[in-house]
Every structure is written in structure tokens, then in C-alpha cells.
Amino acid sequence: MKIEIQCFYFLALLVLPIYAATVLGGKSGAGGVLPGGWQPIKNVTEPHVTEIGEFAVEEYNKESKSQLKFLSVVKGETQVVAGTNYRLIVATKVGGLTKNYQAVVWEKTWEHFRNLTSFTPVNA
Ligand SMILES: *[C@@H]1O[C@H](CO)[C@@H](O)[C@H](O)[C@H]1NC(C)=O
Ligand SMILES: *[C@@H]1O[C@H](CO)[C@@H](O)[C@H](O)[C@H]1NC(C)=O
Predict the structure, then answer these.
(1) Ligand 2 pocket residue status of 64, Cβ below 6 Å
(2) Residue with CA at minimum distance from ligand 2 atom 14
(3) Among the residues of 1-124, which ranges form H helices?
(4) Which is more confident, 97 or 32?
């Protein structure tokens, strides 16, 4: 009986770290809430998310003298880091063509600070 219990603990010690690594180390957003991890945005049609998407397209247009028209946010994730990072897939339209971009916007609401960190085309 004693030996069986020790065996159980030994097994548990072996298996637990592997289990934890699988659950936590996998994709960001799955598993536990890791600090600095990306969390999927559940509702990308929320006004605030739309606003961030529009901001990204406007900033990109200003910086690159483009004329993309914001259509919608297709999907997105957020990351909390001294503010919030938004990583959004935004649909845009230019010259009759729809094109998706991945935009990263860093926002610090309390400072009314927003910055477009990156804006790169993605294959739709
Ligand atoms: C998503 O947000 C929009 C705008 O706030 C709302 O109209 C809609 O009902 C929400 N959808 C879900 C599934 O919560
Ligand atoms: C905003 O982002 C741009 C890169 O897109 C960077 O050059 C600039 O320094 C950033 N501004 C601030 C205030 O962080």
C-alpha cells in the first residue's frame, strides 16, 4: 500500500509538468491567462474595436499616402502591456478591390494615446 502511494506521487510529479506545459505553452489565448499573452477579441463589431480598426487604416493612409477605405474588422486579439495592444485583421477597399491587412495598434486610454505599430498585408 505504501509503495503504491509513493508510485502515484512519483507518476504525478512526472506527468504534471508535461501536462502544464502542454496546456499553458500552446497557442496564446488558449489555456490559462498568461501575462502579456494575446487574448482573442470575442466581438470584433464592438464600436471601440471598430474605432481602433478605422484609426489603423487612417494612420496608414496618412503615413503612406494611400487611400484605403476601412470596411470592417475581420478578427482580432488584444494584449495587455502598459496599455493594450490590438492586433486586428481589417478589411479595406481601394479601387474596387478588397484587401485585408494586419494592423497592430497600441493604445493607452488614460493618456488618449494611440499608435499604429505595424500595418501589413495578409492574404485573404
Ligand atoms: C457585438 O457588438 C455589437 C455592437 O456593440 C452588438 O450589436 C452585438 O449584439 C454584439 N454581438 C454579440 C454576439 O455579442
Ligand atoms: C509610433 O509608431 C511609429 C511606428 O509606426 C514610431 O516611429 C513612433 O516612434 C511611435 N510613436 C510613439 C510616440 O511611440
Answers:
(1) no
(2) 115
(3) 2-25, 47-64
(4) 97
Domain spans of the chain?
1-34, 38-121
Average pLDDT over residues 23-37: 51
HSE (side-chain half, CA atoms, 13 Å) at 81: 13
**Ligand lying closest to the C-alpha of residue 59:** 2
pTM of the predicted protein model: 0.67
Q: Which three cell numbers stand for residue 35?
A: 501575462
Ligand 1 pocket, 46 CB below 6 A? yes
Domain 38-121 is found in CATH 3.40.120.10? no
For CA atoms 76, 80, 81, 84, the dihedral sign is: positive
